[in-house]
Each structure stands twice: as structure tokens, then as C-alpha cells.
Specification:
The chain has 282 residues and is an alpha+beta fold. It is 40% helix and 12% strand. The chain contains nine helices and nine strands.
């Protein structure tokens, strides 16, 4: 099963870049099966990994020199397998620089926006399967102008697109809005409950899934600094009683908040008589 945190970072980066999330997800599936720590050292990957595990940097440098001498530049890292030579950060083949790039590339939050920007340059705006495949194949082989370098490459990217659709479908299915209700709790800080409650048209991106709201018994838990002030919060409640409704999006077992606590706005006091002066907000 795909790591929900990895998938969320990829979807976030795609949204920010203005490309179909399916495109970036398919790229990750084809390149690494969404493994953030995937790496390739041409045909010497096992040797390189052994040298790294043994902290034998001189041996690793020799391996790199032999790779370069063979005419290959296929040293790449991360879920999108961005090649060091074509990364935009290339400074030469010194192991010290390669290892620094490797460490950064293993961070999906770093690599996802880079990969999104890169594949966006190969996408012509066609979000059909054929259009996405062209972008994927250009990413793999820019000189091919959308053609596969080999039948095996095409099959791999077709697999990536197919499996990415399955992952997206799972997210969409489990990402249906789930609603629970809980009794009004006067101990909760009011700004947390009132924030933008009557301005449902204002929506702010909540971040990279770091801000999460969890249900615990009948009260919500907030971090000391409060939730990220960026949630599309509806001002309407379907409950006929004086309750708060909690809404969230569940992505394969991880709850990412894209909605928040909303207050039923009929009346100005709760059944418990807790003060809600100032409602509704101007």
C-alpha cells in the first residue's frame, strides 16, 4: 500500500504546480513504486549501497568515476529518480556533492515540487491518458519528443499510470467527507471554533498534512498554537441541535483536515449555557 503521507505530498505538489495529480503520481509509481529512498547508481547500485553502508567514500568515488567513464550519467535519487547530472544542482562528480543531493532527494517534501515543475515542462495540457503518457515519456527521454525509448519503458509508464489511477481511486473513495458530531465543549478556545465560520467561500490551503484534527471521545484536540488558520469551514449545520460538527478528509488511514469544526448558528448560547457572545461574527 502506498504511504499516505508520500501520496499527499505528491498531490499537494501537483496541485501547487497546476498539473494533474495523476501525472506526478504515475511518474512516482513508474520510477520508484513511490519509494522516497529509491536510488540508482547506473548498473552499480548494489556496490554503491554497500560502500555507503560501510562509509567507504573513497570506494564510492571510484564507483562513480567508473560509471562516468563508461559514458553513463544515470545516478538518480528519490521517488521521481531525478538524475544528479540533470538536476540543476550539478557541480561535478564529487561524492560529497552527490551525497548531499541524495540526502535532500530522499525528502519527498523537497523532491515533489522539483519533480512537479520538471514534468510540467513536458506536459502540453492534455489530461487524457495519451497526453499524460506523452509527458511521462518526455520526462524519461526528452529527445524522443513523446516516444518511448524502448517497449519496456512504455510498458513501465503504462503500469505507472494504471496503478496511479488505482491509488487515486482509493484516496477518492476513502476521501469522501466523513461527518461526526460532538456536544458543545465550552473549554475549547472560541477562536478555534469561530474562525471563518460564516465565510465558507474563503478557503486556505492547510499545509502538507502536518495540521491534523483528531477526534478523541467527545472533544477535539488542538495543538498549543491552534490549528493552521486555513480551513474551508462551512457556516451551515445540518444538526437541529446545538452541536458542533467535525468534518475531515480521511486519506487511507490518515486524516488530513480540509474542513473544520463548524458551529450551529441558531441562537447565541449552548444548551449548557456556555457563553457564545459575539455570534454570529460580522
Amino acid at each position: 500500500m502506498a504511504d499516505p503521507a508520500v501520496v499527499h505530498e505528491i498531490i499537494t505538489a501537483a496541485d501547487v504546480a497546476g498539473i494533474p495529480p495523476l501525472l506526478l503520481l504515475a511518474l512516482g509509481v513508474a520510477e520508484s513504486n513511490l519509494d522516497p529512498h529509491s536510488e540508482r547508481w547506473a548498473n552499480r547500485t548494489r556496490d554503491a549501497q554497500t560502500a555507503i553502508a560501510e562509509e567507504a567514500m573513497l570506494s564510492l568515488q571510484k564507483i562513480v568515476d567508473e560509471i562516468v567513464a563508461s559514458g553513463s550519467a544515470d545516478v538518480s535519487f528519490g521517488f521521481a529518480h531525478i538524475a544528479w547530472r540533470w538536476s540543476g544542482a550539478f557541480t561535478g562528480w564529487a561524492v560529497r556533492d552527490i551525497m548531499a543531493f541524495r540526502e535532500k532527494s530522499f525528502d519527498v517534501a523537497y523532491q515533489a515540487p522539483v519533480a512537479a515543475a520538471r514534468i510540467k515542462g513536458h506536459w502540453d495540457g492534455d489530461d487524457s491518458d495519451a497526453g499524460l503518457m506523452r509527458a511521462l515519456l518526455k520526462y524519461n527521454w526528452p529527445a524522443g519528443n513523446g516516444k518511448a525509448k524502448s517497449p519496456a519503458v512504455r510498458l513501465n509508464y503504462e503500469r505507472g499510470l494504471r496503478e496511479a489511477k488505482q491509488i487515486m481511486a482509493a484516496f477518492r473513495t476513502r476521501g469522501e467527507q466523513e461527518v461526526s458530531t460532538m456536544a458543545y465543549d465550552p473549554t475549547l478556545r472560541q477562536w478555534e471554533l469561530r474562525y471563518r465560520a460564516i465565510k465558507p467561500d474563503l478557503a486556505f490551503w492547510p499545509g502538507s498534512g502536518i495540521t491534523q484534527w483528531w477526534m478523541a471521545a467527545t472533544k477535539a484536540f488542538f495543538a498549543d498554537e491552534g490549528p493552521d488558520p486555513g480551513f474551508p469551514i462551512s457556516g451551515n449545520s445540518s444538526s437541529p441541535e446545538e452541536e458542533f460538527e467535525w468534518q475531515g478528509i480521511a486519506y487511507v488511514g490518515v486524516v488530513f483536515s480540509n474542513a473544520g469544526l463548524i458551529e450551529h448558528r441558531d441562537g447565541v448560547t449552548s444548551p449548557a449555557g456556555a457563553d457564545k457572545s459575539g455570534w454570529p461574527l460580522p
